[in-house]
Amino acid sequence: MVKGKVTLVSFPFDNLKTEKVRPAVCLTNPVGKYGHIVVAFITSRIPDDRLETDIVLNETDSDFPSTGLHTQSTVRLHRLMTIPKNIIRRELGELSNDFMEIFSEKLCKFFDLSLNV
User: Fold this and answer.
1) 17-26 contacts at long range (C-beta below 8 A, 24 or more positions apart)
2) Residue 15 structural domain
């Protein structure tokens, strides 16, 4: 199981020509023959113009040490990528169930998902 893990992956820049190894959070467990996982970009920048889908992981949160991150960071849920599991370079840590609940709520809002049809 990898859902909730904080990992290092090569993440492309917006031009798709260059990439940088960045932390990312796994939002799904592996799916299919190649073990594809949906990940969200993590940046150490805290944007001034935060989006509704941004989640700040504060160093003061009691669950922060388990993330494996070194500094306060922002998960940018609008920056998603599907990757095969084998390109994960390494695992840094893990998000708590409390963090994952926040992610679920924000993703449902972002994708306009509702159980009410």
Assistant:
1) 21/89, 23/69, 23/73, 23/92, 24/81, 25/75, 25/95, 25/103, 26/2, 26/88
2) 5-110
